[in-house]
Amino acid sequence: MLQIILDKFISWFKSRNRWWFPLVAGLSFSLCLPPFNHELSPSLLLFPFLSFIILIPLLGFSVQKSFRRALLHTYLFSVSASLGQYYWIGFVTAEGLWHLILIGLVLISAGIGLLYLSAGMLFRFIYKRLRRLYIIVFPAVWVLIDFLRSVGDISFPWGFLGYSMTPVLPLAQIASFTGVWGLTYLIVLGNMLVWDLVVSYRVKANRAQKWIHLIVFALFLTIFGFAGLMRMNKKIEGEQFKVSLLQTNIDQFNWGNKSLDTAFSITESMVYKASGQKPKLIVGPESALLCYLSRRPELSSQVLKWADSTGVPLILGALHWEKSPEGSFYDYLVYNSAFMVNPLEQKLQPYHKIKLVPFSEAIPFEGKFPILSRVNLGEADFQRGSEATIFNAEGNIKAAPFICYEIIYPGFVQNRVKKGADLIVAITNDGWFGKSSGPFHHAAMARMRAVENGLPLVRSANSGISMIVDQYGRVLNKTGLYERTILTGEFTPVKKETFYSRWGDWFISFCLLIIIVCSAFSAPGIIRRQRKMSAKDRAEEKKENAEIQSSVSSPELK
């Protein structure tokens, strides 16, 4: 039956130029990512497992006989898959800049599409050259491409395939050992085995063997899942820590002259209301107080009064500036910051955001090429912070703060918490994303950081999703989107040290080792096959030349 369906589909696809089909297949890519999971609806329970077959169209397009068709269809799939993941960028409707935002969305989709295209073309090469080893080599290649997406001034490590397993927490525990990279490897490996099975039906050979491979893989996933369940069943013992998260839900799209007063009055009211529940820490979102807080004495004294009156430490998002060094293009250096307000010390301790959003918060490579400072794309022109700050909260709790975009960098978070943090604090403003998949993606990535590092996480988002997450990624409490509310809950600030929290992105080196070893092992065979093909090509060329010479010298042509 499968054989018949496969043959008919391939015949249908090849019968005409079905250029639209890769676009449709690419859009389906996002179905395996949040919010398409059981947390949205029980009917979506199995959607995360679509990730184990989601790459089959990409692989099929990339190995078509015609290189031009392979290139075109793979890229169409890639751009469409990118657009399906990042369409929410178009929801950012800043006044007068929407045309630039839409252009940015197209460029991001095209750029990430090129990375998927390169993965597809590498699969085409590996599939033909490495024979059976391609099954373990290509997942390593995919992981390395994802890792490259997290490096440099234009990095955008959003929506790795490994995040599809965030709602499947028993399997997600693999990340405590390998980071999200190991989950991505396993998912791509699953796609390889399914692909191998499909090919066996196409060539009508070794079907039973391929089914056995796939069943063994499923068995291992089940074992990993049980191991994850056992890990999650280990009780977290220790003193409970109560925290209140402020979801202020301030509309940043209509910011005006009186908005600062509104933000302060709303935040003040929520701080005093939250303090009635006797938390040990109150956390507000990114840009909760959109002003240069420490440079406005009347405002900073007001915030210090909140902490003094309630007796509760506060972490709030605001802005900060410093005078620029002589010769700088800017008069002032502006920072996107989080401030720790401690009632005992009566001072504001800042953390300045280090990872800035390319083209939105800063122009990439501006530090290396100062002339880029003159480029104006409507970006915020923030400066990068340099201090990996850890806040000291009540009860000797050490909180590692991360602002918005920073939480999606696995190694960046691991390096910070390695310095002795007991708690990951993420503050963000996802109100720009609208009611799209963007806030769900962002929240899922934050949860993965808790699993990787064995640390609880609290996340305060201006418009949602705010949440309290334990060391295993379980959501203890959370809010919905676009509601003004206070989320209060308890967690145990005990670090469950993980292999990943200790050794970081070791799995990247492991993937590189797989590629090097398998390539070296296969090199002699590749060279032999290449020589045989070259000899065959030379023989065919010689025969063709002889036929041409014979036809030229024949009497009929004279």
Outline:
With about 550 residues, this protein is α/β, with parallel strands linked by helices. The protein contains 16 helices and twelve strands. The protein is globular and about 85 Å long.
Give structural notes.
The structure is a single chain. The chain is α/β, with parallel strands linked by helices and 558 residues long. It folds into three domains: 2-232, no CATH class; 241-503, Carbon-nitrogen hydrolase (Nitrilase/N-carbamoyl-D-aminoacid amidohydrolase, 4-Layer Sandwich); 506-547. Helices cover 47% and strands 13% of the residues. The protein has helices spanning 2-15, 20-27, 56-62, 67-86, 98-129, 134-148, 169-172, 175-178, 180-203, 207-232, 259-275, 297-310, 410-417, 438-453, 499-503, 506-553, and strands spanning 241-247, 281-283, 314-323, 332-342, 347-352, 391-392, 398-403, 423-428, 457-461, 467-469, 475-478, 485-491. The strands form two sheets. A six-stranded mixed β-sheet has the order 5-4-3-2-1-12, with helices on one face. A six-stranded mixed β-sheet has the order 6-7-8-9-10-11, covered by helices on one side. The radius of gyration is 27 Å and the shape is globular.
